[in-house]
Amino acid sequence: MPIDKNADNIQVIIRVRPFSANEKAEDAKSCVIVDEEDHNKLILDAKPEPKVFNFDWVGGEKTTQKDIFDLCGKPLVQACLEGYNCCIFAYGQTGAGKTYTMQGKGLDTDLTKDHTHRGLQPRVFEYIFAATSKQAKEDPGRQFLINCSYLEIYNEHIIDLVNQVVLG
């Protein structure tokens, strides 16, 4: 189910990662339940009763990198190409899966054969440059200016990851 770009400006998408190898080895139990019938609900198995939270979209352990791109990356790129400013803000505790979702893994290897694990960033960049290349061929006089910020906020410091400068 794609995100409605005519909805509110800020939308919250939750992705629940699968257990790591260590968590599986420890026979860990999940307290997070994703309602596969209603992708707006996240249920915490709490005592004395479960707690239900509603979001714009919730994906479970089987959510793929492509699912995330199709759900939020592609619509945001389309909005950018229409002249809107867009931002993806990945938030969560250490080990929650932010880097995997945003960057993926195996970026230093040849991903031409299998790019299942490519994250949102490489997919967004590929889509932007393919779309602008197509538009430039259709209208050779058209010019594009593409700006991108890549920031990390950690311990109340803002780090520009492109220029490796601490901003705050």
How is this structure best described in words?
By secondary structure, the chain is α+β, with helices and mostly antiparallel strands. 27% of the residues lie in helices and 16% in strands. It is built from 4 helices and 8 strands. It has helices spanning 21-25, 65-81, 98-102, 120-138; strands spanning 13-15, 32-34, 41-44, 51-54, 57-59, 151-154, 157-160, 165-166. It has a 3-stranded antiparallel sheet with strand order 2-3-4, with no helix packed on it. It has a 3-stranded antiparallel sheet with strand order 6-7-8, with no helix packed on it. It has a two-stranded parallel ribbon with strand order 1-5. Helix 2 packs across helix 4 (120-138).
Please state the overall shape, judged from the principal axes of the Cα atoms: globular
Query: Which sequence of strands runs across the widest sheet?
Result: 2-3-4
User: What integer value in Å does the Rg equal?
Assistant: 18 Å
Strand-residue proportion: 15-25%
Class derived from helix and strand content: alpha+beta
* C-alpha termini separation: 38 Å
Order of helices and strands: EHEEEEHHHEEE
Q: Estimate percent helicity.
A: 25-40%
Number of helices: 4
Return residue spans where pLDDT drops below 50 for at least 5 consecutive residues.
none
Mean pLDDT across the residues is 86
What's the count of strands?
A: 8
> Could you describe the largest sheet, including whether it forms a barrel?
3 strands, antiparallel
